[in-house]
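User:
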Amino acid sequence: MGKIGKMFNKSFFTFLIVLFIFIIDIFTKTYALNNLLPYNPKAVTGFLNFTLAFNHGAAFSLLSEAGGWQRWFFIAFSIVVIIIIIYILKKENFSEYIPFSFVLAGAIGNLYDRIYYGYVIDFIEFYYKDFFWPIFNVADIAISVGIILLLYNMFSKDIKK
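Assistant: Predicted structure:
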């Protein structure tokens, strides 16, 4: 397969990954908005609740009480990150497009929320006894999986050397 074919395949699969994750993210957030009451846990299992929450900050609600300016900061930050990832994905000999596609999809999903709603919709809540993990969403999962894959690739290359 020639250079153009490889580039097309990478771009096509990147697009499919981003689109698939974005659609699942939007669908699940819409479901949460339409079927859950804010901050009222709905038990799914003995360790998982669906709890609708609105995150005005970043990860772990960082800066959520900052007074409103953080919305615009996180929108701008997300746009910069998305542009950087797209630039990285456009690089010719880049093989880690799958992890970056996951991060890109999650960033786009949460950016959509910030622009459309003014906050990020979260609804997945894991817990064990009295310990509750911060509530998150599908976009957050995609970002986390992408970062874990990038770290794995980075450290596995170091081990092979």
